[in-house]
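Q: My labmate handed me this sequence with no annotations at all. I'd like to see what the chain might look like in three dimensions before we decide whether it's worth expressing. Could you predict it?
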Amino acid sequence: MVDHAPAAAPVARLIDEFNKLPGIGPKSAQRLAYYLLRLPTEDAESLAHAILDVKQRIVLCGICQNLTETDPCALCRSEVRDRTVICVVEEPLDVLALERTHSFRGLYHVLHGVISPMDGVGPDDLKVRELLARLNGQEAREVIIATNPTLEGDATLMYLERLIAPLGVLVTRLARGLPIGADLEYADEVTLTRALEGRREI
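A: Here is what I predict for the chain of 202 residues:
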């Protein structure tokens, strides 16, 4: 049996830190650590400075809870956005995805997660209070709940709908169904059911 020398303490620590990142397993963590070891010092320092810069300069917008360098963020400051429509999303990346469509001109609210009892995440762990405060202090006529089509996303949607509907604000959700170019034979039952339920006149 061949004995493998353990990684030096700084390398082992770096591997452990990478292993804490989402989607990074032990093997990927090792590859990243040894990749950094091969980098020129200035490139490694540039990466380290970029990480510190993000932690020191990025804050949550006091209105929509999105990531921003200035508070309030550019979207909330904009004078051309429709302030009567708020799209509620799970994460900041969802804002970027919707903005790429150039089809939504309202404002956003980022929950920073979804209700997930299995993971110990309840409503109080999300930015729900901030959303309700906005709706009480702002002339919103519609809230679009754009959570992901998962059990947790749907549970969050139903929870928010129960809180918002009594405020007299219209609550809508994104349409769900078959993606463009999809074959019916490969679609799952839930997707097909939602496609049928969401059908409209041609």
